[in-house]
Design goal:
- The chain is of the alpha/beta class.
- The chain folds into two domains: 7-154, 3-Layer(aba) Sandwich (Rossmann fold); 166-255, no CATH class.
- The protein has eleven helices and five strands.
- Helix 3 (66-78) links the parallel strand 3 (54-60) and strand 4.
- The chain starts with 6 loop residues before the first strand and ends with a helix.
Length: 258
């Protein structure tokens, strides 16, 4: 029993499945990880589903319905280590845009029988309801960062996931800054690394897919956007996308709402 492999479980809340697919897309790296764990529960990849408890649980998706609340609380009880993956699980996701509106009005417009729809007023990150041991950001996540996080927890060490901004990636790649050279609004200075500066590499501004970096100064960037000709509405929209309800982005968007 001493050599028994740790049990890994992968769960889905309200999401598009993109982050789970990133795990499956890891291919050779995933095989190495699976060599050290027992894949006990992963409906996206296998019909074999073992009951808990589990050593590590990965959760994709936001908490959007009363059922999600019940499920995540039960999952927390069954997992020794709980890791949230992706913008939905860590910041409420793109669906958190509804948090500034009346959800009941939406259901009346969209559904013929809205009385059958059971949903929360807001889309929230998993951490709003249970303790989370580690949050891995991204929309979708970086598969290599995920492998590193799994490897770290399997070996009882701290994950080595960089926390600097996308701007550092641009410098490392030799990209010309799209803001200074082309006047394109870019969230790179306040966005957590993970995408390898994908959009700036193609002369497009960063959309903030990996959420706010640590110790971020969004107000300074918002001021720069306005100096470039952006309206307050433009600034608000810039901060309301995949990670709209991440605290730093949420506060900056609200500061420019009126």
């Amino acid at each position: 029993m001493a050599n028994k492999k740790p049990k890994l479980a992968v769960f889905k809340m309200s999401s598009c499945d993109g982050c789970q697919l990133s795990l499956l897309d890891a291919e050779d790296e995933l095989l190495d990880v699976l060599g050290g764990v027992e894949l006990a529960y992963f409906p996206e990849a296998s019909s074999r589903m073992q009951k808990g408890p589990y050593d590590i649980g990965l959760v994709e998706g936001s908490i959007t319905t009363p059922r999600n609340v019940e499920e995540i609380r039960q999952i927390r009880k069954e997992c020794k280590i709980l890791i949230t993956i992706g913008a939905c699980a860590t910041a409420g996701g793109i669906q958190a845009l509804r948090n500034w509106k009346d959800t009941k009005e939406f259901t009346k417009i969209v559904y013929a029988s809205p009385e059958y729809i059971s949903t929360l007023d807001r889309s929230m990150p998993v951490s709003a309801f249970v303790h989370v041991d580690f949050e891995l950001r991204g929309c979708p996540i970086n598969k290599y960062q995920l492998i590193e996080v799994l490897n770290a927890f399997l070996n009882s060490r701290k994950p080595n996931v960089p926390s600097y901004s996308v701007c550092i990636d641009c410098k490392l790649k030799g990209n010309i800054c799209v803001m200074t050279a082309h006047g394109i609004p870019c969230l790179g200075p306040v966005t957590h690394t993970g995408c390898n500066a994908l959009c700036p590499s193609y002369n497009r501004g960063c959309f903030g897919c990996y959420g706010p970096m640590d110790s971020v100064n969004t107000s300074s960037l918002a001021k720069q956007f306005k100096a470039m000709g952006c309206s307050k509405f433009d600034v608000m929209i810039a901060f309301r996308s995949f990670n709209a309800y991440a605290e730093a982005f949420r506060k900056e968007s609200e500061a420019n709402e009126k």
